[in-house]
Design a protein that fits this description.
binds adenosine-5'-tetraphosphate; 13 helices; 5 strands; aa-tRNA-synth_I_CS; cytoplasm; three-stranded parallel sheet; Tyrosyl-Transfer RNA Synthetase; about 325 residues; about 55% helix
Amino acid sequence: TPRIFSGIQPSGGLTLGNYLGAIKRFVEKQDEEFETIYCIVDLHAITATLFEPDVLRRQTRELTAGYIASGLDPAKSILFNQSQVAEHTQLAWIFNCIARMGWMQRMTQWKDKAGKNTQNASLGLLAYPALMAADIMVYHATHVPVGEDQKQHLELARDIATKFNHDYGVEFFPITEPVIEGAATRVMSLRDGSKKMSKSDPSDASRINLTDDADAIAQKIRKAKTDPDALPSEAEGLEGRPEARNLVNIYAALADQSVEAVLRDVGGKPFSEFKPILSELAVEKLAPISTEMARLMQQPDEIDAILSKGSERARTIAAPILKQTYEIVGMVS
Ligand code: AQP
């Protein structure tokens, strides 16, 4: 069976971007013909900033609660945190020796996050995509659902796998397919249609958090930046209108409709009429998730038990693949 792997960093609270671009689609995939493995990539989370240990622990549990509250079933999917399965970092070391410095330095996320003073960025931030390649390859995953922003990292993962196979003359690691689909592969900031919605944006008004209550969601949508024109009735009319496009994409993704179908209904309406309709849909879809997350967060021991059970299951797949990798490379065991 085809095998899916994907992960999210516990680097802050979940946003609507993470939900629509990632989690919602992870949940859909678990009911298709895939074996599904979903990870809380805590080792990735410390590459850009270190957290207070209690904060990182809370964020990890909250992300786990977010996955489950969104419909991820730990009985159907393997759900675990990266640091409990040491094979990820063991394979990442091999990949650090396969990947070239030039490849890493070309990554736009590295350039964005390291900023001008690269001398001061962590070595982990530069190596991030090699660990991500290991996350995928240690399961021989064939498909990786992600948002648009991760496309470049996935291409690098393919390059690393290809170079490994070539250098050792084997056909060992699969050439993984990115799965980037749906209306909301890139949800933009509510304050600036040219920036992606991000958990680390300093402005809370730029994003909808999965923990926001109905009032906060409605207020953020009411204040979202727009242009003065009414909505078009066809998708071409969204050209050059990034904020309008973003709100329509969000509506389409939440409603499981195409952008064309949404515009057939709301085309011609001014934002003053569309925003309340969007708020109502967002609250209807997101409020049950935030309520369930809050309930699950009352039971941290259960969350931890789910993660350790998931980690054991993950290890049964990862350990033999790492062992074979070591044999290919020539490590004596
Ligand atoms: N705005 C977005 N629209 C669509 N998909 C998104 N994803 C993130 N933001 C959007 C997808 O969510 C998954 C997990 O992302 P991540 O937590 O590993 O890191 P990120 O992409 O760096 O997300 P953030 O929210 O922007 O975190 P920070 O601020 O810490 O960098 C991925 O599949 C991603 O594509």
